[in-house]
Amino acid sequence: MEYARSARSSNRGVLKNDPENKRLAWITVPKTVWRFLDGNKARFAFFNSLLFLCFFYDLVPPYVVGKIVDFFSMYQRGAPLDTFYNYVGFLTITYAIVALVRLTGKNQMSHVAIVVRSRVKVVGFERLTDASLAWHAEENTGNKVQRICHCRGLSSECHLSPHSVGFTLIPNRTCCGF
């Protein structure tokens, strides 16, 4: 146990001082995603903002239901029910509109994710082919394929998740089909 702890602490110092092993700061992740978005930046920002605003719709139905309760708590027998029907109609129509907007936004975000994923693969292969011959000579083919398939080392693959506010990076652990 003591040996493992000392080995870990000694490795940390090596990583910090070694210029080959640059540490990844959290701020570089959004910058990298933004760079890979390339021509889809406006589309990503628009649909991501639209989905973000749709999350606030969850506050509307409880408010409207509260208004319905208020209406019926002051309701007099024989009074018109137009206000109640307006509230119910409003909820029905807005539920349908928000559902369509969410589905459209998620669909568009998945199209952006497909483009970004393919761009990441291309850049990863370019980096692989740009590596020096000495590196290729010392690495065996199995390690290279494993790095490509598990998206470690030379290439990384990210998924822009349309199910979250902002963007989320989810590493893809499936083989890239090579």
Describe what this molecule looks like in 3D.
This protein has helices at 2-17, 28-37, 41-55, 60-73, 82-130, 133-138, 141-149. With 178 residues, the chain is an all-alpha fold. Helix 3 (41-55) runs antiparallel to helix 5 and helix 4 (60-73) runs antiparallel to helix 5 (82-130).
Short description:
It contains 7 helices and no strands. With 178 residues, the chain is mostly helical.
Question: What descriptors fit this protein?
Answer:
67% helix, mainly alpha, disordered C terminus, 7 helices
How do the strands and helices of this protein lay out in sequence?
Elements: H1 2-17, H2 28-37, H3 41-55, H4 60-73, H5 82-130, H6 133-138, H7 141-149
Helix pairs in contact: 3-5, 4-5
Alpha-carbon Rg, integer: 26 Å
Helical residue percent band: 55-70%
Low-confidence stretches: 1-16, 152-178
Strand content: under 5%
- Which secondary-structure class do the elements indicate? mainly alpha
